[in-house]
Amino acid sequence: MTLFLDRIGKRCKNRKLGLAGALPLAALLAAALFSAGCARTVVLEGTAPPLLPVPKDVHPVAIGEFRAVDATPAKYADAVRADLASAIQAGGTYAISEKLEGAPTALTGRVKSAVTEAQRPPDAANPRSAPTRARVAEVFVEFIVSSGDQSFAVKETPAPADVEALRRRSPGPDKLQRELLRSCVRTFVADISPRPVRAALREPGVFSDRETRRAIGLLKDRPADAVDQLIGLVDRNPRNAPALNALGACSEMAGDLERAYAFYSHAITVDPRPEYRENAERTFSLLAHREKILPGKPSEGQAEGPKTK
Fold first, then answer.
1. 80, 148, 211, 307: which has the fewest C-beta neighbours closer than 10 Å?
2. Helix (H, G, I), strand (E, B), or coil: what is residue 218?
3. In 79-228, at which residue ranges do the beta strands (DSSP E only) sit?
């Protein structure tokens, strides 16, 4: 570094700048070299297949009967059917067939909605406080997806974020039930639609691991070549965390959540940095949600969430 400064100083001296004038220039050059060689976090964006096993080429879909069960008023089943049609049209992934017969895929289902009041016991921290009344909602929509000779049922419940938002707003019983059912519909439409993915990748610096950096750089324009190179890197070094994490992102975008979670989990056991953990937690949440709404779907690694070393 001293020789570097001396050379700059000599050149600047000829231009009447001297060593003092050379220092800022040297600092800028050193910072540029350091920045170029440092590792950085990049975001890989793409689209994954639907979370649920919806058959390909299901355009259009037909919306059939939704039945109210367990003393649920029929108006809520009608509301679900209308909300489902609106949500599918707004999503733009599927067209809606006016005829149920002959449609590639049909959507039917059952609707349960009830709100009761229960007495909440006094606060444990303040035993003298008076008991309060609380509303308890039991809401779900079971969607039945039928395509040819195959069908599966999905039981959707309101999203926790929507439940919390409604708890703060405290609407009336009728509006509460309608909003909770609408939440079920939104979740279902998201689950049968292609899913956007944003995965954080760690790109090594040019002076540390050029092969991994080159492979990750290929993911955007030549993903097949990138995957082949990443697999080779992991075969040679199973503790290559950036390559493991990148393979997790590729698996997630291909719709293989089990393999994606395995790669992400392995990466954070080697290097528990936040971006790797965020990827693992996102994939684990998707697997848990699918397991909840679609029992019997094989999902490896469901027993526990991501760990750090």
1. 148
2. coil
3. 96-97, 105-120, 132-147, 150-156, 195-203
User: 298 exposed, middle or buried (CB, 10 Å; 0-12, 13-18, 19+)?
Assistant: exposed
Alpha-carbon distances, residue 9 vs 1, 18, 24, 32, 52 (angstroms)? 12, 6, 11, 19, 66
Q: Residue 31 is encoded by which pair of tokens?
A: 């910072």
Three-state DSSP at 156 gives: strand
Asked if residue 227 and residue 185 are part of one domain, the reply reads no
Domain that holds residue 74: 61-119+131-191
On average, the pLDDT of the chain sits at 82
pLDDT tens for each residue of 122-142: 666 666 666 666 778 899 999
Q: State the sign of the Cα–Cα–Cα–Cα dihedral 216, 218, 222, 226.
A: negative
| Total domains, the chain | 2
User: Same structural domain for residues 212 and 175?
Assistant: no
Write down the pTM of the prediction: 0.75
d(CA 131, CA 138): 22
